[in-house]
Design brief:
The complex is a heterotrimer of chains A (281), B (429) and C (310).
Chain A: H1 13-35, H2 41-46, H3 58-65, H4 71-102, H5 106-120, H6 127-136, H7 143-166, H8 171-179, H9 184-195, H10 197-213, H11 216-222, H12 230-240, H13 245-280
Helix pairs in contact in A: 3-13, 4-7, 4-10, 5-7, 7-10, 8-9, 10-13, 12-13
Chain B: H1 2-25, E1 41-47, H2 55-68, E2 72-78, H3 84-93, E3 100-102, H4 106-111, E4 115-116, H5 120-123, E5 134-135, E6 138-139, E7 142-143, E8 145-149, E9 151-155, H6 156-162, H7 170-182, H8 197-212, H9 218-224, H10 232-246, H11 259-267, E10 273-276, E11 289-293, E12 302-306, E13 310-314, H12 320-332, H13 334-344, E14 347-348, H14 361-370, E15 376-378, H15 394-406, H16 412-427
Parallel strand pairs in B: 1-2, 1-3, 12-15
Antiparallel strand pairs in B: 3-13, 4-13, 5-6, 7-13, 8-12, 8-14, 9-10, 9-11
Helix pairs in contact in B: 2-13, 8-10, 15-16
Chain C: H1 10-15, H2 22-53, H3 71-77, H4 80-111, H5 116-130, H6 133-144, H7 149-156, H8 170-198, H9 202-210, H10 215-226, H11 228-243, H12 247-253, H13 264-274, H14 278-309
The chains are: A mainly alpha (281), B alpha+beta (429), C mainly alpha (310).
């Protein structure tokens, strides 16, 4: 895999042109989402596809600093939810994945099947029974309740991604460590975990994006109070300010920027992690 | 065995809800201060935002009430989207119901034991008809005012340009629509999208003036099996509405624009007539707007009045006295009422409310339309709370079916037969 | 390390004479416990509760319910409205599965080159992956409304006859929801194929060329078989996510007009929380889960067999 980048020959001009045309068509909605951030409402209604001339930052300023702006509060809420959820999913998903990647018995296959169910589940069906359980343990309406559920819900996905990778880690490495007297936990932490980094990037991207973009769970588990996240904030704004397009576009841009930055910061390793997972199934 | 498990689950759920009830009830309230509405309290008020009722509006309402109850802290919470009833139900089901709630699905909440009834003193300041907000003789919902479902708002400049007079019969209304359509304009603006009620508010008005007018207890009669949706009068009302659509009198995007988009379409002059609840009297537009009541086929006026703009108090609130005092103050306070009138064109029902002289003109015209000579008042089809309400969830099904009618994927007969089935099905609970 | 060590079945590894990892397997079980406790308590238990609800007439607001056997299931299977919803969800999923896979593969092959242009272009395709369905639905609704970008562009191009109420009629609204979900899903599919393409050894492509294969031939004989694991991943993700579609119809069309764009996931919420019928809503979800599980097992089984045979 060292020659991954060198193997590809320089593209012909035809390919460049086709690639540009295809991506331009694909990116039209993104272009619209971006240019209209910098236009007034009248400009948007008149010519939604035109470039922003004259150019205005009023929408962004209003959304970021306006007296009715909940953006920063919502951003804080989103981070309070996403970061611990992601960390928990990575820790628990990698340990379950480690087990699944090494275990072979019928029991392991059964556990794998049970976890697979969780992947296919539309979580909408869990909402009511889940809230009964959360209420019983006093966590309904709390960040902790939502975070615990996020972890529980995404552990299967993380476990599968890790398991696929763990299978590619030469078993001999661990045996050697065991012979040296390392305990299982130490073997895992010192031998396996360092190898899991690219996979962790994949897991973090997937899980981070999913939780960041989730709106039904925060709405129902956290309720309508101060617990609005960036995404539930947008959902609320769409219902109420649907016709104030400048504000809406500015809000969507601000809401998307943190997760896009995160995504692109990790995307190299993400692709590498996927590549290893994709080939070694 | 299944039964046992079910019973186990029920027991589990019961314990869960008891636990919840327990922790709410055990909140320490020292002696008599709990009954004193002036005692310090912190309550949560769940309401909604619309183009008329903004965050600023609600904060002002709270500030107005705090003039009377300075020790009351109110946390405002908002439902996502205009559909506050379903969201309130989600919160009830998940055990996070706020203390005071705006516009709940009353039947569901009362049968779940989720609301506190108001006392006769609480109701003393309100002049609303018996029955609205009442279930089994107890009053659970305190209205801030009435809304007419719907009035017909219209672009007066367009009417004048086309030489159209305000219609006084339904056939004149149709003629007006024909004239407008012939001029290449859209006669009626109808909505949809996430707000499916905006697809049917005009239809609800026609049904109200043609069916409910003749039998104000229609829903009870339907429940008893004495009338049905497939009856000729109901079918005729639906056909009247559908004819307008098939004549091309509705905007082509009727089913895809939600309420706020619909509102801005009217404000942008994209349609001439706008059948909408009387809250449209607060519309801000830069052309002349008139409004008239929807005439029936015979030229009578029967207006449907919705009292659903109302406050309910949760049975699990720690501060029942203060929560009720808050609701009463919002429903009857002169300052609060005045703000509601100006922001949302609400027709006040508080006794002794004095309308100021500086009412914006369109709101004043809305009141005139509401007081059209010889008008009778009933509970509007599809918008009724309390004992005459349609079964829970029925309105949404009705809206869905009516949208299918508009999009041509069903027929009037099939639609109405389906509504009969749906009614019976949902009425069983 | 060769590519053929792919595929999950550990038994194959042992069959090939690799040392069996079994002796160490047992003591790893404790690693799985914390994860399973979470999953069990907050996902499995609610799922089991839902499963039991589906055999009762449980209502949202009252905990008393009685056992009704398979009534909910029988009712759903004979309810044209639910079958319509189920049909639309299935069509959406299948179209996504086929269309997104095909387009995703083509774009990935097109973009599998170095250089700044290709890097930038790849980024454009990745952006929607990170956007929430709520945002995607909002952006597209500006394009698809009657006075939106699509219609005004059509009119400007003299194709005004094609302009129509995209979200206002059943079929076009359904098509719109399918296209928008596909648009959002495409990026991830491309990422996975690009990742797969990176692992195609140049020597194999070179030798294919020496053997006289054209670009098409070497793609069919070398690249495509080696992309089998990527196809499995994409098929699984598209299948599962297609059936779960919720945000886009809720925000873009309000599941309308007339419920035409409602999916099983939106119906579960509507029937459970709006009609109060938790029993019925649970049965819907269980039916969907059963169907998705069945199809996934079949398709993944077939695709993995293909991986193995390579």
């Amino acid at each position: 895999m060292t020659n991954v980048l060198t193997r590809r020959r320089r593209p012909g001009i035809a390919r460049v042109v086709i690639a540009l045309v295809v991506s331009a068509i694909f990116a039209i909605p993104l272009y619209i989402a971006l240019v209209n951030v910098f236009k007034t409402n009248d400009q948007i209604l008149l010519a939604p596809t035109a470039l922003p001339a004259p150019f205005t930052l009023d929408n962004l300023i209003a959304v970021a600093t306006g007296p009715r702006s909940h953006f920063w509060r919502n951003l804080g809420n989103s981070l309070i939810i996403v970061l611990p959820s992601m960390a928990g999913t990575v820790v628990l998903g990698s340990t379950v994945g480690y087990y699944l990647g090494r275990a072979t018995g019928a029991g392991a296959r059964l556990l794998q099947a049970i976890l697979l169910l969780g992947l296919m589940l539309p979580f909408q069906v869990l909402l009511l029974p889940l809230s009964i359980i959360l209420r019983t343990i006093g966590l309904q309406g709390s960040y902790v309740g939502l975070i615990l559920f996020n972890i529980a819900f995404y552990v299967p996905f993380a476990a599968f991604v890790y398991a696929r990778f763990v299978k590619t880690v030469p078993f001999e490495l661990e045996e050697a460590a065991a012979l040296d007297g390392a305990r299982p936990l130490r073997t895992f932490v010192q031998i396996v975990v360092p190898l899991l980094r690219p996979t962790t990037a994949s897991v973090m991207i997937f899980v981070g994006v999913w939780i960041w973009n989730d709106f039904l769970n925060p709405l129902v588990i956290l309720g309508p109070g101060d617990g609005a996240t960036v995404t539930t904030g947008i959902y609320l704004a769409i219902g109420q300010y649907n016709t104030d397009f400048g504000t809406m576009f500015a809000l969507t841009l601000l809401a998307a920027l943190p997760i896009l930055a995160f995504f692109f910061a990790l995307q190299d390793r993400f692709v590498a992690g996927l590549a290893s997972g994709a080939t070694k199934g | 065995m299944h039964k046992q498990v079910t019973r186990g689950l029920i027991a589990f759920a019961a314990v869960a809800s008891l636990t919840l009830a327990g922790c709410s009830a055990s909140a320490p309230e020292e002696g008599s201060s709990a009954d004193d509405p002036q005692a310090p309290a912190e309550i949560t008020f769940l309401t909604f935002q619309s183009p008329n009722l903004t965050e600023q509006f609600w904060e002002d309402q709270v500030a107005e009430i705090q003039k009377t109850y300075p020790n009351l802290t109110v946390n405002l919470e908002y439902t996502p989207g205009l559909d506050r009833q379903d969201y309130a139900k989600q919160l009830l089901a998940t055990g996070t119901l706020p203390d005071v709630i705006w516009d709940v699905p009353l039947q569901d909440f009362v049968s779940a034991g989720a609301l506190l009834p108001y006392s006769s003193e609480d109701l003393a300041g309100i002049d609303a008809p018996e029955g609205s907000g009442t279930i089994d003789g107890e009053h659970y919902s305190l209205t801030v005012g009435a809304q007419v479902i719907p009035l017909i708002y219209y672009n007066k400049d367009e009417f004048d340009a086309l030489g159209i007079e305000e219609p006084t019969t339904f056939s004149e209304l149709k003629d007006a629509a024909a004239t407008i359509a012939a001029a290449g304009k859209t006669p009626f603006l109808i909505g949809g999208g996430a707000d499916s009620w905006a697809s049917t508010i005009f239809l609800d008005g026609i049904i109200t003036s043609d069916v409910i007018a003749a039998d104000p207890q229609w829903t009870a009669a339907r429940r008893a099996g004495d009338v049905s949706f497939t009856d000729p009068d109901f079918e005729a009302a639906v056909k009247k509405w559908l004819d307008l659509s098939t004549s091309g009198y509705f905007n082509s995007d009727a089913l895809s624009v939600d309420y706020s988009q619909l509102q801005s379409k009217f404000a942008n002059g994209e349609g001439v007539m706008y059948p909408m609840g009387s809250w449209a009297g607060a519309s801000q537009v830069d052309f002349n707007v008139g409004v008239f009541a929807l005439p029936s086929s015979s030229g009578d006026y029967t207006l449907g009045l919705n009292y659903g703009q109302a406050l309910a108090v949760s049975a699990t609130t720690k501060f029942p006295a203060q929560a009720k005092a808050f609701a009463v103050a919002m429903a009857t306070g002169q300052g609060a009422n005045l703000a509601q009138l100006k922001a949302d064109s609400v027709i006040p029902v508080a006794k002794g409310f004095e309308a100021p002289t500086d009412i914006p003109p369109l709101i004043s015209k809305t009141f005139d339309a509401y007081q059209t000579d010889g008008a009778a008042y009933v509970e509007p089809f599809g918008w009724t709370q309390g004992q005459n309400a349609l079964p829970s969830g029925f309105t949404a099904e009705f809206d869905k079916g009516a949208q299918q009618l508009l999009s041509g994927s069903t027929t009037v007969k099939d639609f109405l037969a389906q509504m009969d089935k749906t009614f019976d099905d949902l009425d069983q609970g | 390390m060769t590519l053929s060590t792919s595929a999950s079945a550990v038994s194959r590894a042992s069959a090939r004479g690799r040392r069996k990892p079994r002796p160490l397997a047992t003591w790893r079980f404790p690693f799985a416990i914390p994860g399973f406790v979470f999953y069990g308590g907050l996902v499995l238990v609610p799922l089991v509760l839902s499963f039991f609800y589906s055999f009762t007439d449980r209502s949202l607001l009252r905990p008393d319910a009685s056992f009704v056997g398979f009534d909910n299931y029988l009712r759903l299977l004979s309810d044209p409205s639910f079958l319509g919803t189920f049909g639309f969800t299935s069509v959406l999923t299948v179209v996504n599965l086929v269309l997104v896979n095909a387009v995703g593969l083509m774009v990935a092959v097109l973009l599998d080159k170095v250089g700044r242009v290709f890097f930038a272009v790849r980024m454009a395709f990745f952006v929607p992956v990170a956007l929430s369905g709520v945002i995607v639905a909002f952006i597209w609704s500006r394009i698809l409304t009657d006075n939106g970008v699509l219609n005004s562009t059509l009119r400007a191009l003299g194709l005004g006859d094609l302009a129509q109420s995209w979200l206002g009629t059943s079929f076009t609204a359904q098509a719109s929801v399918v296209v928008v979900t596909a648009w959002q899903a495409l990026g991830l599919c491309i990422v996975v194929y690009l990742a797969g393409l990176q692992t195609v050894p140049r020597e194999l492509l070179d030798s294919a060329r020496i053997d006289g294969c054209g670009p098409v031939g070497s793609f069919a004989n070398v690249t495509w078989p080696l992309l089998a694991p990527s196809l499995t991943i994409n098929a699984t993700l598209l299948l599962i996510n297609g059936f779960k579609t919720y945000d886009i119809p809720v925000v873009m069309t309000g599941t309308g007009p007339g419920g035409a764009t409602s999916t099983v996931a939106t119906e579960v919420i509507r029937v459970g929380f709006s009609l109060n019928r938790v029993g019925l809503a649970s049965a819907m979800a269980i039916i969907m889960l059963a169907v998705v599980a069945f199809i996934t097992v079949v398709i993944v089984g077939l695709l993995q067999r293909r991986e193995v045979s390579n």
